[in-house]
Design a protein that fits this description.
heterodimer, A: about 400 residues, mainly alpha, 2 domains, two-stranded antiparallel ribbon, globular, B: about 200 residues, 7 helices, disordered C terminus
Chain lengths: ~400, ~200
């Protein structure tokens, strides 16, 4: 019941169970290896951006540095502060890690989506048709949102249970930030859902065949808003106030050491990868791309190659953000989230919905667009008017007092 | 069919156990943060029960809205106000309280029994208590019900929420005019005598 409409699971036999196991192993291994590679990639790129060499001793190009660090962390002493709440302190890293793992479950990693094939692949003999993703629930993308809202608990409880001031400050910041940007994330997502008419990740990718990718099919704005909100949701620079080293030592994981710290570290990079995969799935057609030119044997592999190439692009963009953008101030962060991103994505969603209704009713497209733009400009003027009135009033009060 | 039933009952037992122990934890633990976490466990168990009934959308919304937003807000307030210490909360048990609890429990039990007896034919006409939603389109069923038959209730609810938000903004914004503790801490600019007195005291 929990698995959706995968054609494989209509009649379960030995081969079906084997395929599900293979998919579990592939998803797990791909994610773990990508995390290791991502840690190395980020350190290397940031080092190059700062005119340093970066890791270059362990293995060729230092690629085994992550493994060495992981093994070292395993053997470190595991400290729990006296003031800590022992149960919650031990629980928090897993609350970060498990949702990060689970999101990857609904991402389509491959399969040919051209010509309405719907990403169905055939493994181990022609009778076993399946989807190249671990599960395809009807609520696919809501599952992603649900897991990202569960992940807040990891950060929040880690900070609280440490029984120490800097982690608490870090986790209060983190919670406010993640809850604020979840709204922008969800609203920009709505544009994609409106376009594809389904919540299932498989159907969203299938709706983007033949270069009709949501990044431009929804007009670009939701893509940019989602990208910014995702960066904030991941607590990555320039939105990394959660662990601002100069102010909070290390933020919510200051008191963590040894393997528990490693779990947080792992979860953070895993979230970066899964969020990039979600962006690729939603806006850049997932594994979609031209496969017609390739020989037969290559056609099964190409979609997966496309998917990972797109993934790598976003991973680089996230590292690029980190290497170039200075951290925002806290009030700037909140202003950007509440006063720019949320109204913008809401207005854009209404505009797209108006176009959709206009299409159904055969209205003049330019008229709909014109009325929509005028309404949005009017709304924006109202919002900015209200904001500047409030600012002026506050300034008056400060002068008066 | 047999396999499905076994899987369903195992899922139900685990989820129900999580719900019940979570609910006991909400009232049992002494630390507010532990209470809130138990509430999360209960909400999560209910989400699993929704999935077992084929109500995927409700399950997702349960996790996103209740576990992801409302309890996070609870925890946020608990942390900000610093009431997260275990406090001595032993209260004397009043007879009226016990009677009220028994009445409420009996009422809830009666409602559960009615829902159980109602079975397939329910008051609203939508399948609910004992029948699974059609799992292939639970979203469409829900969307159609909300935006056609129950659209008035839906709109009234949204107005209610808007009123609540505006009310919260009005209540929380600083009142114009003088601060409340004006008498206790008078403004020295308006009463120069105070200022001189203060300076004198500092010498």
């Amino acid at each position: 019941m929990i698995f959706g409409i995968d054609p494989l699971l209509e009649n379960i036999d030995g081969a079906a169970i084997l395929i599900v196991l293979v998919k579990v192993v592939i998803a797990f291994a791909a994610l773990m290896v990508s995390v290791m590679a991502m840690v190395w990639f980020e350190r290397k790129i940031v080092a190059r951006m700062q005119n340093r060499l970066g890791p270059n001793v362990a293995g060729p190009f230092g690629i085994l540095q992550t493994l060495a660090d992981g093994i070292k962390l395993f053997f470190k002493e595991d400290l729990i502060p006296d003031n800590a709440d022992p149960f919650v302190f031990r629980l928090a890293p897993y609350l970060s890690l498990v949702p990060a793992f689970l999101v990857f479950m609904v991402i389509p990693l491959g399969g040919d989506f051209n010509n309405g094939k719907g990403g169905v692949v055939t493994w181990f003999g022609s009778t076993n048709e399946t989807l190249f993703q671990l599960a395809d629930p009807h609520i696919g993308i809501l599952f992603v949102l649900a897991m990202s809202s569960i992940a807040v608990y990891g950060v929040m409880l880690a900070g609280w249970s440490s029984g120490s001031k800097y982690p608490l400050l870090g986790s209060v910041r983190a919670t406010a930030q993640m809850v604020s940007y979840e709204a922008a994330l969800g609203l920009s997502l709505l544009a994609v859902l409106l376009n594809s008419g389904s919540l299932s990740t498989n159907a969203i990718v299938a709706g983007q065949q033949a270069w009709n990718w949501n990044a431009w099919a929804t007009g670009g704005v939701p893509f940019i808003v989602f990208m910014i909100a995702a960066t904030a949701e991941l607590n990555r620079p320039p939105f990394d106030l959660v662990e601002a080293e100069q102010e909070l030592v290390g933020g919510f994981h200051t008191e963590y050491s040894s393997i528990r710290f490693a779990l947080f570290f792992l979860a953070e990079f895993m979230n970066t990868i899964t969020m990039s995969a979600v962006i690729v799935t939603l806006f850049l057609g997932g594994p979609a791309g031209p496969t017609g030119w390739a020989p037969e044997w290559l056609q099964g592999v190409l979609p997966t190659v496309y998917f990972f190439a797109k993934l790598l692009m976003f991973l680089f963009i996230f590292v690029w953000f980190r290497g170039t953008l200075p951290r925002l101030r806290y009030d700037q962060l909140m202003d950007l989230g509440w006063k720019v991103l949320i109204p913008l994505s809401l207005a854009w969603f209404l505009l797209l919905a108006a176009f959709k209704v206009g299409q159904d009713q055969n209205w003049n497209r330019f008229l709909v667009g014109g009325v929509g733009v005028v309404t949005i400009v009017f709304g924006a003027a109202l919002v900015s008017g209200a904001a500047s009135a409030a600012r002026a009033r506050r300034a008056d009060q400060e002068v008066a007092s | 069919m047999f396999a499905t039933t076994v899987v369903d009952s195992i899922t139900f037992s685990i989820a129900a156990a999580i719900c019940l122990f979570g609910a006991l934890g909400v009232v049992g633990f002494r630390n507010p943060v532990h209470n809130a976490l138990s509430l999360v466990a209960t909400l999560f168990g209910i989400a699993v029960l929704f999935i077992a009934q084929g109500a995927y959308f409700l399950a997702a919304i349960q996790v996103i809205v209740y576990a992801g937003a409302i309890v996070v807000l609870f925890l946020f307030v608990i942390m900000l106000l610093g009431v997260d210490r275990a406090e001595n909360l032993v209260a004397e048990r009043k007879v009226s309280g016990i009677v009220l609890a028994l009445l409420l429990g009996a009422g809830t039990g009666a409602m559960v029994y009615i829902a159980y007896r109602a079975g397939l034919s329910t008051p609203t006409g939508e399948k609910s208590a004992m029948a699974a939603l059609d799992p292939s389109n639970d979203l469409q069923v829900l969307g159609r019900a909300i935006f056609t038959d129950y659209v008035l209730a839906f709109e009234i609810t949204s107005i209610l929420l808007t009123v609540a938000v505006i009310g919260a903004v009005v209540l929380s914004r600083p009142a114009g005019g003088e601060p409340i503790d004006y008498e206790e801490f008078p403004d020295p600019e308006e009463d120069p005598a105070l200022l001189v007195e203060d300076l004198g005291a500092n010498d």
